[in-house]
Amino acid sequence: MTTRIGVVTFPGTLDDQDALRAVRIAGAEPVSLWHRDKDLHQVDAVVLAGGFSYGDYLRAGAISRFSPVMETLIEQAKAGMPVLGICNGFQILTEAHLLPGAMLRNNHLHFICRDQKLRVENAETAWTSDYSAGQEISVPLKNVDGRYTADERTLDELEAEGRVAFRYLDGNPNGSLRDIAGITNAAGNIVGLMPHPEHAVEPLIGTGRTDGLGFFTSIIKKLVNA
Amino acid sequence: MSLDTVKHAAETPDAAQPWKELGLKEDEYARIREILGRRPTGAELAMYSVMWSEHCSYKSSKVHLKQFGEKVPANDAMLVGIGENAGVVDVGQGYAVTFKVESHNHPSYIEPYQGAATGIGGIVRDILAMGARPIAVVDPLRFGAADHPDTKRVLPGVVAGIGGYGNCLGLPNIGGEVVFDSCYQGNPLVNAGCIGVMKHEDIHLAQASGPGNKVILYGARTGGDGIGGVSVLASETFESTGPAKRPAVQVGDPFQEKLLIECTLEIFREKLVAGIQDLGGAGLSCATSELASAGSGGMRVELDTVPLRDSSLSPEEILMSESQERMCAIVEPQHVDRFLEICEKWDVIATVIGEVTEGSQLEIFWHGEQIVDVPPRSVAHDGPVYHRPFARPSWQDALQADDAGKLARPSSAAELREQVLKLVASPNQASKSWITDQYDRFVQGNTVLAMPEDAGMVRIDAESNLGVAMATDGNGRYAKLDPYTGAQLALAESYRNVAASGAKPLAISDCLNFGSPEDPDVMWQFAEATRGLADGCLELGTPVTGGNVSLYNQTGETAIHPTPVVAVLGVIDDVNRRTPIAFAEEGQLLYLLGDTTEEFGGSAWSEVVHNHLGGLPPKVDLGREKLLAEILISASRDGMIDAAHDLSDGGLIQAVTESCLRGGKGARLVVPDGLDAFTFLFSESAGRAVVSIPRSEELRFNDMCGARGLPATRIGVVDGEEIEIQGEFSIPLSELRTAHEATIPALLA
Q1: CB neighbours of residue B437 within 10 Å
Q2: N or C: which end of chain B has fewer CB within 10 A?
Q3: CB B529 within 8 A of CB B482
Q4: What is the DSSP letter of B146?
């Protein structure tokens, strides 16, 4: 049976089509999920894509977190369903307390769009097993509220438990504490990051690299072998 | 205040009216009275005043713009021409592409963030209203001197506005320009372009026909923002002592616009609309009169049903409001329920505000009382037409006689080297990545090329790899020296940029930015530039599909340089064959295509080194441009070149520097026989490009150029970590990179 991976569209989600395409390119069946619909339509995993849901007018992700689809998603994620939050999706995951910490406005206060080098720190999550620990990858980064923040105790805990999944290399683009670009929960099924792996899945498009494809092939392998 | 109804207007012919305050001339007011056979009501006066403003009626430019419709090249690609919200061209495989460039100059000076943001919003809705999904935006921008304190107010605001709005819409920003010149100090040019794609059968037009069909207003509520924005801001010269005009600038809500886009596309997919129009300049006045005028004529609107943000707005204000993120659709009665259902799904407010009627009048009611009763065509299309006087300026001859060829040239290799560094670090030639990195160029996952490439390129079909490319160019310095040639140079450069990316140029849109039409000097520049553009398009075979005119770009007596900006749209059958600018492969051969002569009038060198503007701009040979484009496209298709960069402002050294830095590789260059190093590096002769060729392809490429008669000169090789001009000097890439990339952040960050 084909792996079904859902991508949620909230009002103001922008990278949903890109995420659906990445899922398809990786070999799974993409399924569109609608924010008002509690039903996850039997998907095996969910991607919360980037964008500015509800305009990010209140606080990035703060309103989406209360949408009907999130009720089911939060419940299932806690039960072990793999969830990947990219950019706005990561912000929603922190607002939903599925991942610790929060994102603040970039320290330079500007939107920044660039090709960003990352180090994969944890290659054992549901979404990173196709990488090797310490591997360096390049994927696009684009955000204005991307500065990862948490209290010192949480940061120490994340580090000690190996839950810092990605770190910025060659310059911290936004002032994120300890160069953190992405994190995972303890179980490794929920991963959030600010950069956009779904924009780096085709050789010709975007940065011309396919370094992001591993997120999607990782999850497919995990689900097929489960 | 009592309501000024049609009945009341007929009974009180002598009531004083504020036609002058609304920007109407005495004879225009008299004409309105003549059309109506009575004095207009307040609401009618509001409608006529905004629709007959320069911005909406093109009253000064119309007689010149006619040429774009008369000198139309034979071109099968054109599906919808000038006059609609945007033109549409056929790009093959059943796809049609619509695109347009517009200005939002005046609002962006007053309130840079919102001015620029709503400029994006407006052009995107124009494209959407044609039935297309918007797929990319571009932004040609011009500011005052880079080191002027006010530029530090205007530029960051404009850039943040474009980013803040565009990024939130999910449209990749793939190109544009950033130019600094003190002539734009009080009049920055904020132009915005958008590309949209659809299938042929999905083209929608702005017309209201079919009596009984409902008029639905949907999107944002109507507020007091931007009242008279178009007529007040875009049709008057700024006076330094005038009152604050900030309230006339509209405020944008990109989240609402994103919902409007998705909602509208779903409505299109279900084929629920008979006609559609976006609400931009002149708001409801424009949408109702244009829809009715393009249809059978009759429409009845209950204005009090319009959802408001501010319940105290008067009917006149509602008609004039330029609140953003609104659209108006004509819907057959049986589709109304489904239409409203889709709007509800997207949390978009939609209201039936009227219907198409049997008659020929546009009738608007306010709580049952009639306040408008006009022939819609008289509002939308039969505005005044001016034959403004124009004459070649008295100073033009002296300007052209001030030959840049006489300027002191570098006398040693060391001085030449120093001038190269100065040029690539000058604000106009420096890297703009500090600006363009604030725009999302990746969203939608189809971006093949984006800044700083010659043209932006997006894939429109992931199966066939069909793509479109767009470049925008303009050079006010050239146009000031000779507006006819300057307009053709803008066209030629944009055309060349598209071809250099590997795409075939198809059609153009233009944004004509000029000073006051009431000045005969400016009007001459306008007349010359439009004539040059129309003649050029005829020769290149690229029709003008639409565009925009922005006049009154002047402060006091001083007008901006005449600045026609041209956007060329091209098509590429397989985006895998696109040509980037980067010199990335060591050992590849560099060829200079075209002829180089001593042409320095209006050049970047003359500006940077001598702060000079005089002489004649480079000569234009459109036949040569066509040939060059054909060679670039063939070479791309057949895999003969790995990189190409057009030569324009800054000349060869600017192009080579950009290509080397982009690819991270150096180059060794030899000055060709018959040229001196200075001319080789800095001349701005048109019709040229530099290409990087794998050695295995050299013979084939040379044969092609020889057979077609295009001069191709081997000038060097991609090699090392410096740019070396043999026998002259060399500069390490690291030094070039610092010079090229440090300028803009140092001035603006």
Answers
A1: 20
A2: N
A3: no
A4: T
Instruction: Please name the residue ranges forming H helices in A110-172.
Output: 152-160
B161 φ/ψ angles, rounded to the nearest 5 degrees: -65, -45
Tell me whether residue B405 is in a domain: no
pTM for the complete prediction?
A: 0.94
Look at residues A82, A205, A96, A101 and name the one whose alpha carbon lies nearest to residue A145. Answer: A101
B480 in a domain, yes or no?
no
CA–CA separation, B41 and B6 (whole Å): 6
> pLDDT in tens for each of the 226 residues of chain A?
689 999 999 999 999 999 999 999 999 999 999 999 999 999 999 999 999 999 888 888 899 999 999 999 999 999 999 999 999 999 999 999 999 999 999 999 999 999 999 999 999 999 999 999 999 999 999 999 999 999 999 999 999 999 999 999 999 999 999 999 999 999 999 999 999 999 999 998 888 889 999 999 999 999 988 7
Structure tokens at A110: 């500007």
Output the domain CATH number for residue B700. Answer: 3.90.650.10
**DSSP for residue B560:** P
From chain B, the residues in CB contact with A56 under 8 A are 168
Q: Which residues of B touch A (CB under 8 A)?
A: 160, 163-164, 167-170, 253-256, 258-259, 346-347, 436-448, 459, 462, 575-576, 578, 749
String of DSSP letters for B179-227: EE-GGGSSS-EEEEEEEEEEEGGG-------STTPEEEEEESPB-STTT
The number of distinct structural domains making up chain B is 2
Residue B651 inside a domain? The answer is: yes
Could you say which residues of chain B have pLDDT below 50? 229-246
Domain boundary among B343, B369, B384: B384
The reply to whether A87 belongs to the active site is yes
Could you give the count of Cα atoms lying within 13 Å of B101 in the half-sphere of its Cβ?
32
B250: containing domain? 1-69+204-384
CA–CA gap between residue B600 and residue B617 (Å, rounded)? 7
Chain A CB contacts of B462 under 8 Å are 21
For residue B654, what are the CA distances in angstroms to A16, B210, B658? 39, 58, 6
Q: Is residue B345 part of a domain?
A: yes
B745 three-state secondary structure: helix
Rounded distance between C-alpha atoms, residue B212 and residue B487, angstroms: 47
Last residue of a domain, one of B321, B352, B384: B384
In sequence order, what are the beta bridge partners of A171? none
Is ipTM > 0.90 here? yes
**Which residue in chain A has the smallest CA separation from B579?**
A204
CB pairs A-B closer than 8 Å:
89
Instruction: Please say whether the beta carbons of B327 and B219 come within 8 A.
Output: yes
Contact present, A212 and A86 (Cβ < 8 Å): no
- Is A113 catalytic? The answer is no
State whether residue B695 is helix, strand or coil.
Answer: helix
Mapping DSSP to helix (H, G, I), strand (E, B) and coil, where does residue B301 land?
Answer: strand
- Is the torsion defined by CA of B211, B217, B218, B219 positive or negative? positive
Rounded to the nearest angstrom, the gap between the alpha carbon of residue B522 and the centroid of all alpha carbons in its chain is: 20
